[in-house]
Amino acid sequence: MDRWIAPELLFDGTVVQRGKALQLSGGRVVKVADAPADAVAVTGLVTPGFVDLQVNGGGGIMLNTTPTHDGIAGILAAHRGLGTVAVMPTVITDHPDVLDKAADAAIAAKGLHGFVGLHIEGPHISVARRGTHAAQYVRPFDDRTMETVMRLRAQGIAVMITLAPENATATQVATLVQNGVVVSIGHTDATAEELRILMAAGATCATHLFNAMSPMLGRAPGAVGAVINSDCYAGIICDGHHVADEIVGMAIRARPTAGRMMLVSDAMATVGGPDEFTLYGQTIRLQDGRLVNEEGSLAGAHVTQALGVQRLVVRTGTPLETALAMATTVPADCMGRPDLGGLMGRGADDLVVLDADTLDYRGDLATALATTAQSNAAQ
After folding, report:
1. Which of 12, 189, 239, 266 is catalytic?
2. Entry pTM
3. Residue range 121-145: average pLDDT?
4. Of 65, 327, 337, 342, which residue is most buried, by most CB within 10 angstroms?
């Protein structure tokens, strides 16, 4: 059955519009047009559900400690319930066996609703900029990782890999890119010149800008300066802890190419789960909104894409359309999946509703429609 849905505001992946409606046929969006008189009104801002390319865990699950099909399914479910409908589960630096198991899990998870692919963050990074990653597992890029990545690609699994110039060569990057891998530079103490070598080889992304990378100084642009001045995609965490709000806003405005900044959560198991979890045998706890390890250092983030979008607008001065695109169309484009950033062909459960004034997350559109139907039936 066809029906028209008229939200208060509608973000189509590019612009926010008023007075527009979605035509649903077979439960999927087939048209966007001026709202007809018989359209079902929905209060709030409707937007494509959020896309997150860096999700370490959720719902009490860490991919590193539960590298299974069910582990991935649990992480997807936890984030879907909070507005993120397309997720790239992320395995961080660990023993090679963990990466192999994560690859097996990703292959088994192929076809799960909302599963984008596997993000391999490390172990081929800089020890000096490893952050919470375990130093004993950091190592140069090797044949074992290449074989695992090629196995994933052979099975049609999208792959993003974060590596650093300190532990990967331009030739290795070029080989990865030639096989359809998205190479992201991160966890690096390299110079701007060293980063540009990998960019020239095909690296098109940077992992959590500012965090775990050499800073930008007056006479040395560092990794941060090289990324900002490039046309690479760059993820950034907007939780008020990883990067100062004013710096987030400044970086967005400074990029020479529009549509290259994307929001990532770097979410850990506490998102949609308990307030602590174990990683590398250490207990990671949530304290005052920050996740810290036993040394008191930041250990991932406790934030959702919905909260990140809200903070971008309210605290960094980022325009609403830019903020929404950073969590939808930009990460979708980064992975060559424009279908994940727009409205057409999407089911109501892949669209989310935000409060039009506060941008608080209200749930998915399918739930909003069910609630509206129940309310109308009761009247």
Report:
1. 266
2. 0.96
3. 96
4. 327
